[in-house]
Design goal:
mainly alpha
């Protein structure tokens, strides 16, 4: 058999094996080779390199890969055939090495897939460059990610006009992954990939126009690009388009005459279409629609079912939300829309599962349960460990809760006000207005090792920052600063103005302070003398 014919035959065998593992028949059985990219030359021979590049789009479908893993686990015989075939390709051509890499990736043998793609990429295969870059970016098959190297391979594949790599390179440039952020270049790369039909690029480019990142915000262009990708079936674009409708973030021409209930129904249908493609985020969004009765009749049982399904598909948010639902309960017993009874033990189980998957919000929720012994045994040590881990992941709530541990002190977090203030300040800088107000309170009360005058100045500074951002408690406390001469000169008029604004912003304590002021007698007029005390007769 000629070399080209042998390669074509082996490429077809690889696709046939993958099809068997997936539990489907090759499309050749119905006379349609186009799904696998088997184009024919005039003499009847396969155009193998082009065919393999087209087949790569089939191999790299994330949903198909998940299906392959699932079916392979159920059918070891097919898996052994696939692996034996992959082993036979180890010393093959660049194209064969690329196929070999995917077979190992499907099996979960990431180091072998990385090695096969490295050989293929270094031999000039652009599909392997794209796959290798993905492995480098996410640390698949190697000790740790190498984002800079990933960008280099995406650059090489883009230079060879690989469409998917072009979109992936644009993502790296947009998000500063392995390179510096450059919205201008990202937009150019996304346009190039989108112009060649890449749905990922269309969706990302649309969201850039939606946010106005490096370009003037343009809702109409955003809707056109995201809508085009959604119409073609991209699940992420379907989710984004649904969010546009749900939040009324659409051009006025589209919103004209539409009630909010109509927009919610459209959003629900879009989420439904995305969920049907296996998108876990969409399953969670549908669950929220059922939970809140938006776009569909409220049905808590259906909501929980969808959250479970999303969680089973590795949606970290869904696990944490299920924990929150069972921690607090929802609905009334006998309600036609369903009822979720409080179940602290079950809530802790969901928080634990989510925390084990790296969910920082669940780490915080689980830590609070451990601190209070709700649904589990009291365990301050584990609580501090979880909060510390969540802080390392950048969780803002964790910063404040861990700071409170050090502020109050316990057996596993000895009292350390300096460390507490450092964490509160980090949370405040990240936008936690509760932490901003609490920093002001601590400084107003005075740090033992601090300069009293500097403490008062810092207290006023934190309260002013919170006031500028609309926080009611900070507004009230800034008013008290003017009233009590903390960091500023005494100014009763400004104090009352701020206290009344605190009431308007929803702080009940502000009204208490105002009422207290009314009970204080007004000062005597300037120059007036106090009447002498009258002696009793």
């Amino acid at each position: 058999m000629a070399c080209a014919e042998a390669l074509a035959h082996r490429a077809y065998c690889a696709r046939a094996v993958l099809a068997q593992v997936a539990g489907v028949q090759p499309d050749n059985d119905v006379g349609d080779d186009s799904v696998y990219g088997d184009e024919k030359e005039e003499d009847g021979k396969s155009v193998t390199s082009a065919g393999l590049r087209e087949a790569e789009e089939w191999f790299t479908s994330i949903y198909l890969l998940e299906l392959l893993r699932e079916r392979a686990a159920r059918n070891p015989k097919c898996l052994l055939r696939a692996l034996a075939f992959a082993a036979d390709l180890r010393e093959g051509t660049a194209e064969e090495q690329f196929v070999c890499g995917w077979l190992f990736y499907v099996h979960g043998d990431l180091p072998d897939s990385f090695a096969a793609w490295k050989h293929s990429a270094d031999a000039g295969n652009s599909c392997a460059m794209n796959s290798l870059a993905f492995s480098l970016l996410h640390g698949k098959g190697i000790a740790q990610p190498d984002k800079a190297a990933a960008v280099e391979y995406y650059e090489r594949a883009t230079a060879l006009h690989h469409v998917t790599a072009t979109g992936n390179l644009a993502f790296c440039v947009e998000c500063a992954e392995g390179t510096f952020r450059d919205y201008g270049r990202a937009i150019l790369l996304y346009r190039k990939a989108a112009g060649r039909g890449d749905l990922f690029a269309m969706n990302r480019l649309g969201m850039i126009y939606k946010r106005g990142d490096g370009v003037q915000r343009d809702d109409l262009t955003a809707l056109r690009l995201v809508g085009q990708a959604a119409r073609a079936g991209d699940p992420h674009a379907l989710n984004n388009l649904a969010a546009f409708y749900k939040k009324r973030e659409l051009p006025e021409a589209v919103l004209a005459g539409r009630e909010m209930s109509d927009l919610h129904r459209i959003a629900f249908r879009l989420y439904q279409r995305s969920a049907a493609k296996g998108n876990a985020d969409a399953m969670s969004f549908m669950g929220l629609c059922y939970e809140k009765g938006e776009g569909v009749d409220r049905d808590l049982d259906k909501a929980v079912e969808l959250f479970h399904k999303a969680a089973e598909n590795s949606d970290v948010w869904a696990y944490n939300h299920l924990g929150t639902l069972f921690q607090n309960g929802l609905g009334a017993d006998g309600d036609s829309s369903g009822h979720i009874a409080k179940d602290p033990v079950r809530a802790v189980a969901f928080f634990t599962k989510c925390a084990d998957m790296g969910g920082s919000n669940a780490m915080v929720n689980l830590a609070l349960c451990l601190q209070k012994g709700i649904g589990c045994e009291h365990d301050d040590r584990r609580a501090v460990e979880l909060l510390t881990q969540a802080v390392e992941l950048g969780n803002i709530d964790a910063m404040s809760f861990l700071a409170m541990c050090y502020e109050n002190g316990n057996s596993h977090a000895p009292r350390n006000l300096t460390k507490a203030m450092s964490l509160f300040a980090r949370a405040s800088a990240a936008g936690d207005l509760w932490a901003t107000n609490h920093c002001g309170i601590i400084y107003a009360e005075g740090l033992p090792e601090g300069n009293p005058q500097e403490n008062r100045r810092l207290a006023c500074s934190f309260f002013t920052d919170g006031f500028d951002k609309g926080d009611a408690s900070c507004t009230t406390n800034l008013g008290k600063c003017y009233l009590l001469c903390i960091g500023v000169q005494k100014d009763t008029r400004s104090a009352l103005k701020l206290l009344r604004l605190g009431v308007d912003r929803g702080d009940a304590h502000a009204q208490t302070v105002i009422d207290t002021l009314r009970e204080i007698p007004p000062p005597s007029p300037r120059g007036a003398e106090l009447a002498p005390a009258t002696a009793e007769t």
